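Continued from yesterday's entry.
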Amino acid sequence: MRHLLATEGLDAEAATAVLDTADELKRTLLGREVRKLPTLRGRTVVTMFYENSTRTRVSFEIAGKWMSADVINVSAGGSSVGKGESLRDTALTLAAAGADCVVVRHPASGAAQRLAGWLADAGTSVVNAGDGMHEHPTQALLDAATLRERLGSLAGRRVAIVGDVLHSRVARSNVHLLITLGAEVVLVAPPTLLPPGVAALPGGASAGASGSLTVSHDLDAELPAVDAVMMLRVQAERMHGGYFPSAREYAIAYGLNERRLRLLPDHAVVLHPGPMLRGMEIASTVADSPRSAITEQVRNGVHVRMAVLYHLLAGEGETA
């Protein structure tokens, strides 16, 4: 694997290999007083974030450091971007300085793909840490890792993705990956927060994908038949105009509260990619309940991102 730019087109074998490596790394580090592996010693990972981030940025930094890579953070505000330098020139500068991998978050959809094209001859790998409203592949992988941990195989499992699907790169990446791994995905949202042609979303899933995609506007009707429910943040910063009457009405129709939690099967798990708008898309009592795997998602995010860096940067003779 040279780059990780999207889950669209990522086949089940490659995705499963990353998830299996993450499981192995997690077991290896379990109980260690010093969480440090020599696997990526001598490698340099640069995180380049043009949008705010807590979980993704910190987990990539921890992942690189736990594998003994040198990790350097570059922010738009503290770099020559503030002087007008283009994304292309910044990327070429980092590659020339010796970056083996660039982890990029950018507000423009397709930015990671462009970056990979510009660095094609530099031997530098690119990881998409979120590009506009397009994709966020490592989030989908850590969500899949969490679901595998809680539910076992994803094949045949029914997963509801609820809320602001229209503006969510997390939703898109999860749709592609979960369908590729054999899950049945149902998108639950008001019509105004679903993208046009939403039924065509799984068209980019890898060949041989055995999952399916359906759409619903009735959250209460879907909850009794799902194995997992993933709540999405309402991304007000990307909205221009009215997509729903009010925050209160949205919470009434699509918020996961204690009453709705009781509608779920006993084994069902609650996910949220964060940051959470408590009281709007999810109640605090639900987010902090034993049914919630939100903290586990963050924890698994470190191991999944370690696995991604391993597959991109470790030599063929290295072991995880």
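--- second protein ---
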Amino acid sequence: MDDDDSIRDALEDLFLSVGLQARSYATAIAFLDQADPLASGCLLSDVRLPQLGGLELQERLASHGFLLPVVFMSGFADIPMAVRGLKAGARDFLLKPLRDQDVLDAVNAAIELDRHSRLVAIEGGKARLRFASLTTREKQVASLILSGRKNRQVADDIGLSEITVKIHRSNAMRKLGAHNVQDLVRMDRLLCFAISDTVVTAVAPDA
């Protein structure tokens, strides 16, 4: 994102040359007003923007529904500014003049992060739906199995026979689509954290 037409054009040409779609905006306000919050990819933004700076834009993204990774660029070696952006979750901080390969490396890494995050969110949503289909007892048994308890120990813990525990465990595994305890652990992690290649370039001046 840069209000310098030549920089916007150069970035768009660079991305298109490697098969990445790009949308550019002259200001952060225009980005917030016009960009699709559900779009995948990443946000490449200058730090020094008119009206609303890049760091301030970063702070507003979540409240506007954007979950895109952010890559900042700046013509000033402002270390405190870079640190602030990175601490707030920015994926990278590039200094102008930009090197094409540095830009592509940073953007591709951010896109991969976004793709992974979206896949985790999708799988986490599926895991939540499956977990919600369990009965209270099945959830209890699955939880104890995840904690490392054996069937006999689970039976003693909740006052059931071992055969009854095995039935609840089998039903829970079937509903969750799990073949073993390792599958249960993976789903549990998804619950805890519970696509196209597009670069959204937020462009504004570095003056």
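The longest strand covers residues 21-25. Confidence is low (pLDDT under 50) at residues 194-207. Will compare against the first tomorrow.
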